[in-house]
Amino acid sequence: MLILNEAQVRDLLHLEELIPVVEQALIDFSTGAVQQPVRSVLPVSSHNGLWALMPAVYDDVMGVKLVTLYEDNATRGIPTHQASIQLFSSQTGQPLALMDGRLITELRTAAVSAVATRLLAKPDARVLAILGSGVQAGSHVQALRMVRQFDEIRVWSRTPEHAQRFADAIGARTTTREDAVRGADVVVAVSTTRTPLVLGEWLNPEAYVNAVGTVGLNQRELDDAAMNAVVVVESAESALRESGDIVHSGAPIYAELGELLARNRPLPKGRVVFKSLGIAATDIAAARLVYQRAR
């Protein structure tokens, strides 16, 4: 059995190869080729943490991602999200690999957003707004630049010095939250929050939104006006159990992303919100790619 740490995973996993892999995984999930329950989440209340289990059986492999969310880690100087992925053969049950899952989570999330943006954002999208300045913000800029050419990138973050440092690194400008969103063609919300950061009154009628920052029924990153849009998700079952934005706004789900990629539903028009929660199918697909490259 292979054992791979984060540095080894980083050497083996690259966004340009991962994007088509997660695209196929999304199609296979929505067409029934993947066995996957909704993730199980156990609270670690004494330490303000969450521990989630995300299993899936996908073609010749099966696996489980064990992922933790400890928001207080931000004050400790260590990642708030950490994970490991155990990969098995689905034919024999033989353990194949144990690998660090933090980077896989980071990159597969950005890769899924890139797939969605390429399909759902306007072809001539030129202005990108990023709400957040952490790990996911950087990965999303890298991934989205592979599918669209942006003339302007606007950055907002709760911590101005973090926003400025991030903006300098990617060639963007910092601004207020409202100014970042108004007039933007593509909006990416990647900041942990319990109250809405994106307001519908700020959005263009044809804006496209990647809502990535929150998972959980008690959290919102878009207000009801912003959710008055065509809503696309990875998994309808997961979204109805895990998305406060969808459940509390009452917004109907138009389609799963995999359905649209497979052309089983017409592509939507007007404002589109892709509410991304993360599914095991894309994690296991990414882990399989790492395993194949390692061998």
Which structural traits does this protein have?
295 residues; alpha/beta; ornithine cyclodeaminase, domain 1; 2 domains; eight-stranded parallel β-sheet; seven-stranded mixed β-sheet; globular
Secondary structure: elements and pairs:
Layout (H helix, E strand, L loop, with lengths): L1 E3 L1 H7 L2 H16 L3 E2 L4 E5 L4 E10 L2 E10 L10 E9 L5 E6 L1 H19 L6 E5 L3 H10 L7 E5 L3 H11 L2 E2 L2 H5 L4 E4 L18 E4 L18 E4 L2 H7 L1 H6 L3 E4 H5 L10 E4 L4 H15 L1
Parallel strand pairs: 1-7, 8-9, 8-11, 9-10, 11-12, 12-15, 13-14, 13-15
Antiparallel strand pairs: 2-4, 3-4, 4-5, 5-6, 6-7
Helix pairs in contact: 2-3, 2-10, 3-4, 3-10
Describe this structure in words.
By secondary structure, the chain is of the alpha/beta class. The chain has two domains: 117 residues, 2-Layer Sandwich (ornithine cyclodeaminase, domain 1); 159 residues, NAD(P)-binding Rossmann-like Domain (Rossmann fold, 3-Layer(aba) Sandwich). The strands form two sheets. It has an eight-stranded parallel beta sheet with strand order 10-9-8-11-12-15-13-14. Strands 1, 2, 3, 4, 5, 6 and 7 form a seven-stranded mixed beta sheet that branches. It is globular, with a radius of gyration of 18 Å. The termini are close together.
- What is the makeup of the main sheet? 8 strands, parallel
Q: Which value, in Å, is the CA radius of gyration?
A: 18 Å
Distance between the termini: 11 Å
Instruction: Return the CATH topology of the largest domain.
Output: Rossmann fold
Q: How many strand segments?
A: 15
* CATH class membership of the largest domain: Alpha Beta
* Secondary-structure element string: EHHEEEEEEHEHEHEHEEEHHEHEH
Number of helices: 10
Low-pLDDT regions: none
The shape, in one word, is: globular
The number of domains = 2
**What is the CATH superfamily classification of the largest domain?**
NAD(P)-binding Rossmann-like Domain
Question: Helical residue percent?
Answer: 25-40%
* Mean pLDDT figure: 96
Class by alpha and beta content: alpha/beta
Strand order of the largest sheet: 10-9-8-11-12-15-13-14
DSSP strand content: 25-35%
CATH architecture of the largest domain: 3-Layer(aba) Sandwich
